[in-house]
Amino acid sequence: MAYELHYWPGIQGRGEFVRLALEAAGAPYVDVARGDEDEGAGLPAMLHYLEDASVARPPFACPFLVDGRKVIGQTAAILLYLGPRLKLAPAGEADRLWLHQVQLTLADLVAEVHELHHPIASSLYYEDQKKEALRRSEDFRRTRLPKFLGWCEAVLQRNAGNAQREVPRLVGARLTYADLSLFQVVDGLLYALPKATRRTLRKTPLVAALHEGVPRQRRLAAYLASERRIPFNTQGIFRHYPELDA
Amino acid sequence: MAYELHYWPGIQGRGEFVRLALEAAGAPYVDVARGDEDEGAGLPAMLHYLEDASVARPPFACPFLVDGRKVIGQTAAILLYLGPRLKLAPAGEADRLWLHQVQLTLADLVAEVHELHHPIASSLYYEDQKKEALRRSEDFRRTRLPKFLGWCEAVLQRNAGNAQREVPRLVGARLTYADLSLFQVVDGLLYALPKATRRTLRKTPLVAALHEGVPRQRRLAAYLASERRIPFNTQGIFRHYPELDA
């Protein structure tokens, strides 16, 4: 049975981290909220899980995955669940937990990227918190972005065998969901903050090599060239407001 | 062998979520950074894992747990690991994943509580971002706090059997680490934002009952009355600045 991915249509957002894993693995899935309401899909099908009191274990927010009777929310938890099933996680509890740790740290970075343009409230427009966003982005470019990507670089440096690999891996020798997520984070940052991100990537060459190499995977390349890949835009998490970059 | 917990001394912070689990289970553990440098503990012992290039799998930040050769960062990942070992998690993959989802959602709430007093940058003092904090806290009190605690209330309502229990549980019939964490979040919120939190708790009676009942567990009660429990203060995540409450 196909997995059901539930996420806002029209943006990549946090749903994209799950989508990349499903696409790279060639797993059958339905992107429910982008489907047709007349066929039982669309937004109402997604909102059912978030709003209907009959759902025993309601996700707090999307994305969430429905696999048979299981409803799994929280991006990192979804990938923890899918990783072994899609062969995008190593064997063994210790390695899987380390992979999950890396993913949770990337999730923290993604949360900070969202706060860049919404430092006061998600419920307000960017224009209503632009002054605060200018202050916040300055600190992000100077301290947080180098710290996060610097940590990813250290993880890549210390993963044995990367020196011999054309495309470095975060955990173990094979592609994992965290590699896909780091590709996505860097891709989003290059869209949102091209100047600051390029400057940081010059100091994190393994992160840059991963970002360049990961999309060459055959299935991923096909996905990225397809209409299923929603372009970055200023509704998503990674937003390009030139005034926030430098 | 005793678990090693590594966290900043002097504040509860995110380390407290791990500490509560270890204490409630009566597990042997060493609070490393609060120990004596002359005996190989203290801050240098913690900073080794964060800063030394010889650490193969460096945590991004504390808290982290050291169990033999394993080094596990990210609060929710630590609890995912400890849960079954401390008998603070249900049996079965689906139930454990749901418990982890609940924990990750509480972690999101904790992150937003931190942003309340640091909406611009962690590297700046509160006083240097107070104007922005006033704006952010207004939205938090009005929309985010009711949304998060309302979701916890729904989770408690829908967990079968809670109507018959004196102290409701988030997942299953027995105490889990998420119950301990929700107790801690509410306790911290009552310290930081007493007015807004009391108002919200009147609409979430099961959350209030959990917060009242959980600390009656024998080992937890002993811990909370001991000197090991660091009092809340304005260095931690939950900070009482009266101007942010209403």
Strand content of chain A: 5-15%
Radius of gyration of chain A: 18 Å
End-to-end separation of chain A in angstroms reads 47 Å
Oligomer: homodimer
Mean pLDDT of chain A: 97
Biggest sheet features of chain A: 4 strands, mixed
Instruction: Indicate the CATH architecture of the largest domain in chain A.
Output: Up-down Bundle
User: What is the CATH topology descriptor of the largest domain in chain A?
Assistant: Glutathione S-transferase Yfyf (Class Pi), Chain A, domain 2
Largest interface: A-B, 41 and 41 residues
**Number of H/I helices of chain A:** 9
Q: Within the largest sheet of chain A, what's the order of strands?
A: 2-1-3-4
Name of the level-1 CATH class of the largest domain in chain A: Mainly Alpha
The tally of beta strands of chain A, per DSSP, is: 4
* SS-derived structural category of chain A: alpha+beta
Give helix and strand order of chain A, one letter per element, not per position.
EHEHEEHHHHHHH
What gross morphology of chain A would you assign?
globular
Protein name (chains A, B): Glutathione S-transferase
Organism (chains A, B): Ramlibacter montanisoli
GO molecular function, one term (chains A, B): glutathione transferase activity
Pfam family, one (chains A, B): GST_C_3
